[in-house]
């Protein structure tokens, strides 16, 4: 049996199809009594509005575009989960794409979303990303998360430099004297800021830095490089938790005890950080909340009819102390 149509609802409520449409779509130019009658009729008939038709009336697609550097791994899964939970609570749909760290792919993805979304959530922390500001759709509210895009619109950023400083101070407080760093890729602005924080706070000359790429494999290679090159560091700050997992494995394979021989600090606090052996000390940025708050900021802009320029929200990483950095003895 075919579902009820808008025409059926209008007939049931004894109003015109135009009045039924305005009432269903929540527009203001309809009397309250008519609205109540139409909604009651729709409920009785179990009428389900057609999304495409509704968007023509309201000029809304009820869809949010989400552009991330990648969609692989726990970090991005948590970002998407935060966005999705907040979107579902508001009856919104998501259109998700990954740029794979390529600004040209980011441009193509944003252009493909044009006309299909009501607003954009963009995460593009790569150094070249400031160029993307020039092609952001002026007609769409845009919120950036942990990005290098100077769009002058809504933004949520992380104090990565401060996080790097906090990690080093903690390792020094644990009695570590030979510090090393496994960084993220040099073309990543967040990775560079974490490394800059590390270098500004470390007290030793020429600290050892290994450049990784945010994957477990590169963290594993970084630890192997430290093991093969002279005195082993007694404290390692790793620029993200995924690399810290790989670093832990390499140290374990070499018979190096964490934290007795080497104290280890990661960054992000992805869900698995609690379940490594030993559990990983890390800098928590609230990944889920980054996504959730980004979506909420974007919805507020949609409700207000446009994004108001502001300084943006800055998240301060929080040190989460677990066993991997408890280096002190006695």
From TrEMBL:
<dbReference type="InterPro" id="IPR010982">
    <property type="entry name" value="Lambda_DNA-bd_dom_sf"/>
</dbReference>
<dbReference type="GO" id="GO:0000976">
    <property type="term" value="F:transcription cis-regulatory region binding"/>
</dbReference>
<keyword id="KW-0238">DNA-binding</keyword>
<keyword id="KW-0805">Transcription regulation</keyword>
<dbReference type="InterPro" id="IPR028082">
    <property type="entry name" value="Peripla_BP_I"/>
</dbReference>
<keyword id="KW-0678">Repressor</keyword>
<dbReference type="Pfam" id="PF13377">
    <property type="entry name" value="Peripla_BP_3"/>
</dbReference>
<feature type="domain" description="HTH lacI-type">
    <location>
        <begin position="4"/>
        <end position="58"/>
    </location>
</feature>
<protein>
    <recommendedName>
        <fullName>HTH lacI-type domain-containing protein</fullName>
    </recommendedName>
</protein>
<dbReference type="Pfam" id="PF00356">
    <property type="entry name" value="LacI"/>
</dbReference>
<keyword id="KW-0804">Transcription</keyword>
<dbReference type="InterPro" id="IPR046335">
    <property type="entry name" value="LacI/GalR-like_sensor"/>
</dbReference>
<dbReference type="InterPro" id="IPR000843">
    <property type="entry name" value="HTH_LacI"/>
</dbReference>
<dbReference type="GO" id="GO:0003700">
    <property type="term" value="F:DNA-binding transcription factor activity"/>
</dbReference>
């Amino acid at each position: 049996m075919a579902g009820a149509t808008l025409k059926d609802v209008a007939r049931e409520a004894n109003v015109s199809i135009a009045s039924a449409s305005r009432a269903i779509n929540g527009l203001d130019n309809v009397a309250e009594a008519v609205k109540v009658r139409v909604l009651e009729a729709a409920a009785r008939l179990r009428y389900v509005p057609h999304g495409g038709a509704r968007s023509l009336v309201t000029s809304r697609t009820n869809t949010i575009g989400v552009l991330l550097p990648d969609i692989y791994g726990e970090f991005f899964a948590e970002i998407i989960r935060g966005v999705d939970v907040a979107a579902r609570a508001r009856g919104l749909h998501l259109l998700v794409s990954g740029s794979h760290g390529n600004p040209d792919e980011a441009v193509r993805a944003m252009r493909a979303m044009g006309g299909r979304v009501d607003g954009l959530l963009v995460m593009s922390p790569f150094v070249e990303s400031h160029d993307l500001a020039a092609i952001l759709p002026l007609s769409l509210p845009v919120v950036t998360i942990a990005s290098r895009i100077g769009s002058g619109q809504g933004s949520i950023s992380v104090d990565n430099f401060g996080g790097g400083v906090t990690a080093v101070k903690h390792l020094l407080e644990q009695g570590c004297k030979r510090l090393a760093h496994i960084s993220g890729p040099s073309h990543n602005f967040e990775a560079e800021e974490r490394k800059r924080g590390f270098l500004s706070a470390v007290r030793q000359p020429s600290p050892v830095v290994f450049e990784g790429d945010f994957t477990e494999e590169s963290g594993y290679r970084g630890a192997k490089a430290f093991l093969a090159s002279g005195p082993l560091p007694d404290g390692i700050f790793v620029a993200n938790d995924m690399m810290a997992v790989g670093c832990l494995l390499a140290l374990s394979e070499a018979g190096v005890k964490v934290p007795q021989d080497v104290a280890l600090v990661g960054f992000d606090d992805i869900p698995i950080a609690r379940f490594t052996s030993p559990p990983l000390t890390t800098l928590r940025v609230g990944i889920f909340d980054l996504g959730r708050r980004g979506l909420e900021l974007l919805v507020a802009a949609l409700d207000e009819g446009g994004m108001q320029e502001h300084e943006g929200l800055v998240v301060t990483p929080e040190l989460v102390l677990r066993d991997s950095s408890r280096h002190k003895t006695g």
